[in-house]
Amino acid sequence: MGANIHQLQQSLEALEAQAAQLVHHFSSLYQDYLRELGASVSKQLMRAAYHLCTQTEPQAFVGLSLSQQQSLQQGLQRLGWQLQQSLLQTLRDTLVADAQRMVPEHLVLAIHSIEDTIVAVLQQTSRDANYLLQDHQILEIQSMDALFKIAAQADEAGRPITSPPHLLKALVEAKESELEEDNVPVVAIYLQITDIELADSELMAWRHQLRQATQQLMALNKDFVQKQKARTTAEAEAAWRASWFPYSPEKTPTISDENECVESDDKEEGREP
Fold first, then answer.
1. 127: CB partners within 8 A, 6+ apart
2. Strand ranges (DSSP E) for 158-236?
3. pTM exceeds cut of 0.70
4. Residue 138: what are its φ and ψ, rounded to 5°?
5. Which of 29, 70, 104, 201 has CB atoms 3.0–4.6 Å from 19's, for a disulfide?
6. What gap in Å lies between CA 161 and CA 195, rounded to an integer?
7. What is the dihedral of CA 142, 143, 146, 152, to 10 degrees?
């Protein structure tokens, strides 16, 4: 039994070593992927803004002064740069900082965290871009939350929500006090990871490598969890055997023993003081 526990421990240590190698592999892949993603988002954000300002709301953009137009363009470019820096910082905080201490299941959680952060950062960048466009009188969005809620519901249902890419067009219900004819479609920027990857072949190549590495990680984690459970079971069995000793009941009094006790008491009472 002790040999079995030792073998399981060695197997777990070997799997942890493989996980450490995967951490470095994921770090390298994500660094390249996120760098390309940041550059791609910057380009596609500008394309979406260009289409919005020249095709959807051309009069509003032409109505801006040159300095206002440049301010809008610079602000959009800055958002793309900030997105890339934010994603790379997430990678450093999530993987690089704990590279030597990560077991497979923790690495799985770290990967999920990175992917969730990518979506969250794209959402925030979309909001910031729309606020910037609104500040420059290109858009007028009464409720960003309501608009993004509609987009999220359509996305979950599998319905296409952006056409052209990254431009969301939705009908947001007016308040009861407003007239029905005031319900006009709202156009806004809505960055989606699927559209971004489809438009960038190099980014898709990195995503393919990430999927392969993730499949390898999931198999590794499954093996790790099974061996962890087996080791815990073996340790419990060993502890049971080590703490076991036969039950030894105390001597049970018999009738003859009780009679002897009575006779002894009588003799004690008959003694003279």
1. 144, 148
2. 167-171, 185-189
3. yes
4. -90, -40
5. 104
6. 11
7. 100
